[in-house]
Amino acid sequence: TATLATTTATDLGGLVKLASSTASSSPSLTFDNFVDENTYSEYIIIMRNIIPQTDNTALRYVYRSSTPSDITGTYYRSGVYYYGDSASSGFESNLSDTNFGKISDLGNDTNETLSGKFSFYYGAGSFSSSIVGKFFRHNPFAGVHAQEYGGFLKATDSIAGIKFYMSSGNITSGSIYIYGVKK
Q: Which of 41, 26, 40, 49 is nearest to 163 (CA)?
């Protein structure tokens, strides 16, 4: 008989589960008012098997204020991508979007999913925050596609949360978990 260990935030190096949500044809997965820069030094966001309703659409995010409302501004992104079953790879540099950040393009064919881990850091100066991520998506036509990138928001608003949504249609299924790393 196996015994399950009980752990505390101290046992896990200060890792505390703050929120989670599972999509079921959801317009968005929104996490408001979890940011506490006095308690946490970093936030870890884990995505599992995200599938869009609409084929060939983009998974986006937008930071949220404490009111709560979406934070507008220029969201910057750059990084690398590579395929696990071909010699294709490349850079994504100097990309920006107005009022949202883009994570990846996704499809909804059989076995097409996105999973990954992001670190969210509260920023200083004219950049309110940064999100750094490693994730993979499975595309049945092109194989396994992995990406690593950094995203930044150029605004001075205080960030209190984050919202994930598709550029078209709902999030059919998948889960997102948010953990805080205690100082």
A: 26
